[in-house]
Amino acid sequence: MDALETLDREVRLEELALQAVERELVLIRRTGRPDIVRLHQLLDYARNFEDRAHREKEEDHLFVHIKEHGNPASRFQLDEMARELEKEARLIRVLSEAAGEFKLNVPGTVDPIRDALRDYHDCMRTRIHKEHSYLLPLLRRSLTDEEKGRLEEEFQAVDQGNGGPDAIGKYEKILKQAAG
Ligand SMILES: [Fe+2]
After folding, report:
1. What are the Cα distances from residue 13, in Å, to 17, 77, 123, 174?
2. pLDDT tens digit sequence for 118-142
3. Alpha-carbon span 120 to 117, nearest angstrom
């Protein structure tokens, strides 16, 4: 596995999370309430993988690497992506709070969850689109085999500090179920 394969796998994980969010939004529209167990599974992934291991790999390693070799245009794009990651982290906190205050049969506790899910969904969809249309193609064009190997070593060190190398497999299972 090299760094590009790892990133491909993590983008697929993000796509599953996006599907899980869409499934929750449909459920809320139909029944007036979320599946709170699935919502907490999604938050577990968002807080403990996406906002930690995945974000650290992108911001602290990948973006730094591209900036070292990149042109001013790519620097601008990456700074924008970092701001979007920060916005998403804020939305995850809002969603966590709303999920913590959810009470069955109290409709007013569902609206904040639905609103946070919508905002999170829109942000995530934009980011995944950028990863497919900009980030991954840029990496495929520009990374040498030696750089891919070095980045992968850095990614593995990030995983060691964030739930270990099996975390991605664990979240793949959880999100496949949550996405339906
Ligand atoms: Fe990403």
Report:
1. 6, 22, 15, 10
2. 999 999 999 999 999 988 898 888 8
3. 5
How buried is residue 118: exposed, middle or buried, by Cβ count under 10 Å (0-12/13-18/19+)?
middle
Helical spans, DSSP H, in 32-57: 36-45, 55-56
Q: Residues, the chain, total? A: 180
- pTM greater than 0.90: yes
User: What contacts 18, CB < 8 A, 6 or more positions away?
Assistant: 121, 124, 125, 128
How far away, in angstroms, is 30 Cα from ligand 1 center? 31
Distance 13 CA to ligand 1 centre (A): 9
Whole-number Å distance between alpha carbons of 175 and 178: 5
- The DSSP element (H or E) to which 69 belongs, if any, is helix 63-69
Q: How far apart are CA 112 and CA 95, in angstroms?
A: 8
Contact 133, 27 (CB under 8 A): no
How far is residue 124's CA from residue 176's CA, in Å, rounded to a whole number?
Answer: 17
Ligand 1: distance of its center to the CA of 54 in Å? 6
Give the residue among 94, 88, 65 at the shortest CA–CA distance from 78: 65
Predicted pLDDT of residue 17: 97
For the segment 25-50, what is each residue's pLDDT rounded down to a tens digit? 999 999 999 999 999 999 999 999 99
